[in-house]
Recover the amino acids of this structure.
């Protein structure tokens, strides 16, 4: 579970940094690396699923306490 949490947090940090770059400089790092095709959409989807996964993990941690 700890390894999954590390992966999720890493993806959320990458996603947050990407959105910061988009907001500040109108520069989409994911799109510049992966292009405008399906691969970039997959990366966006994985980051979004990571956010959902983190919410679920937080709710599980809350019930354990």
């Amino acid at each position: 579970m700890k390894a999954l949490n590390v992966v999720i947090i890493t993806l959320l940090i990458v996603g947050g940094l990407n959105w910061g770059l988009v907001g500040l400089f109108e520069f989409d790092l994911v799109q510049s690396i992966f292009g405008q095709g399906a691969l970039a959409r997959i990366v966006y989807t994985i980051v979004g699923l990571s956010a959902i996964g983190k919410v679920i993990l937080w709710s599980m941690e809350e019930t354990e306490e």
User: Anything to note?
Assistant: The chain has one domain: 2-64. The helical segments are 2-25, 29-34, 38-64. The chain has a mean pLDDT of 92. Residues 2-64 form one domain.
